[in-house]
Amino acid sequence: MKKTQKILVKISNLLLDIKANHNELYVLLDENPITIPTVKQPKVDANSLEDYLISLKEILKRYNKNHKKNLKLT
Question: Sign of torsion, CA 43 18 64 74?
């Protein structure tokens, strides 16, 4: 499998996990499976996909940290 395909699988799995287990976060991500590019042929390479995957992981990590903190307060 190509590197790009592997990253896309990781992104898809992470988004499915977020949607299933953290629906309130998923809604805030505003993920839309159908997008209309603003340029004629947008370039999406492995590096940009990797950056996106990293940012999703960071968002989930911060969400979990804050969510656990809020649970302790109640």
Answer: positive
Q: Alpha-carbon distance 12 to 23, whole Å?
A: 15
Q: Give the pLDDT of residue 71.
A: 61
pTM: 0.77
Give the list of residues 6+ apart from residue 46 with CB closer than 8 angstroms, or none: 3, 4, 7
The tokens describing 20, both together, are: 């299933």
**Are 65 and 23 contacting, i.e. CB atoms less than 8 angstroms apart?**
no
Residue 18: how many other CB atoms lie within 10 Å: 21
